[in-house]
Amino acid sequence: MVFNITNQITVEGATNAEQGNVIGANIARQIEAVVVESISSRGAVFRAIRGVS
Predict the structure, then answer these.
(1) CA terminus-to-terminus distance, the chain
(2) Which backbone phi and psi does 37 adopt, to 5 degrees?
(3) Which residue from 15, 20, 36, 39 has the highest number of Cβ atoms inside 10 Å of its Cβ?
(4) Does 5 have pLDDT greater than 80?
(5) Is 2 left (phi over 0), alpha (psi -120 to 50) or beta?
(6) pLDDT tens across 19-48, in order?
(7) Do residues 28 and 3 lie in contact, with contact meaning Cβ atoms separated by under 8 Å?
């Protein structure tokens, strides 16, 4: 399974475009980490349930 997560986060209030891009990229990395962790942990739960059934 492949996920393509693109950074389309707009940051308002940054002092310049470069700072806005850095902040947006950091937010995107945090979101990606949460999504990947959620998928990984749920996969382990599903495998454990199937192993018991």
Answers:
(1) 25
(2) -65, -40
(3) 20
(4) no
(5) beta
(6) 888 888 888 888 888 888 887 777 776 677
(7) no
Cα gap 28→9, rounded to integer Å: 7
Give me the amino acid identity at 25.
A
Phi, psi of 4 (to 5 degrees): -110, 110
CA dihedral 24, 27, 5, 48 (to 10 degrees): 180
Cα separation, 45 vs 53, whole angstroms: 13
Residue 44 token pair: 């382990």
Nearest C-alpha neighbor of 28 from the set 6, 45, 52 = 6
